[in-house]
Amino acid sequence: MNTEDILMKINTAKTNHEVAELYDKWSKTYDHDLKIIRPGNKGAFKTVEWFEKYVHIDASVLDAGSGTGGVGELLFQRGYLNLTGMDISSGMLTEAKEKNIYKELHLGGLGEELKFPKDTFEAVISVGLFTPEHPPPTNCFDELIRVTKSGGYIVFLLHNGLIDEFKVKLEELEKNAKWTLVERSPIIRTVAKSKIHPGSRVHVYQV
Fold first, then answer.
1. Where are the domains of the chain?
2. Average pLDDT, the chain
């Protein structure tokens, strides 16, 4: 199955179980394929840059949707050593484990009840989940807030095509004093300019 076929199947998957199975199949070639479909991995690099602005180097960090550990590697290279990875795919976690950058790896998906106690992490980062290919439900933010300590940060890259889908929830959480929007990045183009793409933005919220 080639990359385009996998992405199409992920986009039309009905359940998290289907998504997990597809990523399991993709895990062995994911890092290689990502270099082709996302040259330079600009979205990840930019999200990590914004994360660095707010999160201290010793923070306990949850990489939500860690995949094979691409974002974790970038953080690790910058001195973030207290990293926990979580992903829906056991195959992707197996690949991430080989990189020796995470203190812990957990199987789990956004939208489900997370298997972490309240106030576990000082920061959360998420890249590659809030895209048109089977994005998590909007209630995933409630759980991310629950596991983040007061004063901690939740930093995520959101595809601009999903703004309408997530806007109400993001604003509702702010209105209810669950978190505060700290900053939102300019539009980031994560694909070649020749392709039509609305871009993405890094969102930084403080709990």
1. 3-206
2. 88
The whole-number pLDDT of residue 36 equals 63
Radius of gyration of the chain from Cα atoms?
Answer: 16
> Among candidates 41, 42, 4, 44, which has minimal Cα distance to 22?
4
Instruction: For residues 118 and 75, give the distance between their C-alpha atoms in angstroms, rounded to a whole number.
Output: 23
Mind listing the pLDDT tens digit for each residue in 27-66?
777 666 666 666 557 889 999 999 999 999 999 999 999 9
Beta bridge partners of 153: 123, 206
Q: How far apart are CA 16 and CA 24, in angstroms?
A: 12
Handedness of CA 207, 54, 138, 69 (dihedral sign): negative
DSSP-derived pairing of the beta strands 61-64 and 83-87: parallel
The model's pTM is 0.89
* CA–CA gap between residue 103 and residue 194 (Å, rounded): 40
Question: Tell me, which fold does domain 3-206 have in CATH?
Answer: Rossmann fold (3.40.50)
Distance CA(166)–CA(26), nearest Å, equals: 28
Structure tokens of 160?
């601009």
